[in-house]
């Protein structure tokens, strides 16, 4: 079966910080209408990879492809303009600013022209109210400071904002790590909704209970290298956990995956809780 062209892909990407090889020959792809989970221990290189995807810095070597074309981002705004939106855990919001102002920050709609151009508050807040209602966040007043929202709601506002401004790829770096169970569930539900809208989603998380139910593809980074890639249902929860923690069973699985010569063997297990 031929795979569809990835929306965004890294080929053999290497990135060093001084003597530290944060990434070594990493290949990774993001597909439309799929959630790809990027897993791995602290320091594995996850944030470095997504910073390359979001134009923060270029790779030292290797290439990036967007819609099948080679691409070099000139900076974060360039990546954003090309439809790659990244939502970081510590959201870049202004806490005392109203929810709707945060939504429009840097992209304010204007009314009138020339010296009469000004931010159209009523249109801006109506749009935000509508967009949030679409994802199930009903606010009595979008003029409330964003600091009055829960962590999960703030993440959802950031995701809704990215989708509204035309993101094709949505990258989420640990969006659920600071959230309680209910809050995380809200964010995960909205990640699934973004996939339903045909966005390509990259989800970085430490929590396999969050990754496994929503992920379609999984890549594990270990010391800056891809240690395993597999598809939904290929492995059991325990096998994925073992791979991430670098356990002995994980090594065996990794060798089997490598020997099959295929990134995504359909080695579906009978005992497959949660996938
Ligand atoms: N800006 C930087 N300067 C120097 N070293 C860095 C920088 N960013 C990341 N690193 C190093 O690169 C490696 C990968 O880090 P990172 O991508 O943040 O991992 P992860 O997100 O998986 O925890 C680590 O050893 C980290 O210390
Ligand atoms: Mg990180």
Q: How would you portray this structure in words?
A:
With 275 residues, the protein is α/β, with parallel strands linked by helices. It has a domain at 8-94 and 166-270: P-loop containing nucleotide triphosphate hydrolases (Rossmann fold, 3-Layer(aba) Sandwich). It is 33% helix and 24% strand. It has nine helices and twelve strands. A six-stranded mixed β-sheet has the order 6-9-10-3-11-12, sandwiched between helices. The longest helix has 16 residues, at 181-196. The protein is globular and about 65 Å long.
Q: What is the name of the CATH architecture of one domain?
A: 3-Layer(aba) Sandwich
Largest pleated sheet:
6 strands, mixed
List unreliable stretches of 5+ residues.
264-275
Helix content: 25-40%
Keywords:
275 residues; alpha/beta; Rossmann fold; six-stranded mixed β-sheet; four-stranded antiparallel β-sheet; 12 strands; 24% strand; disordered C terminus; binds adenosine-5'-diphosphate; binds magnesium ion
Write the layout of secondary structure elements.
Elements: E1 8-17, E2 20-30, E3 34-39, H1 46-53, E4 61-66, E5 69-71, H2 76-81, E6 84-87, H3 99-104, E7 110-111, E8 118-119, H4 121-134, H5 151-164, E9 169-173, H6 181-196, E10 200-204, H7 208-214, E11 217-222, E12 225-231, H8 237-245, H9 248-259
Parallel strand pairs: 3-10, 3-11, 6-9, 9-10
Antiparallel strand pairs: 1-2, 1-4, 4-5, 7-8, 11-12
Helix pairs in contact: 5-6, 8-9
Bound molecules: adenosine-5'-diphosphate and magnesium ion.
The site of magnesium ion has 2 residues, from helix 1.
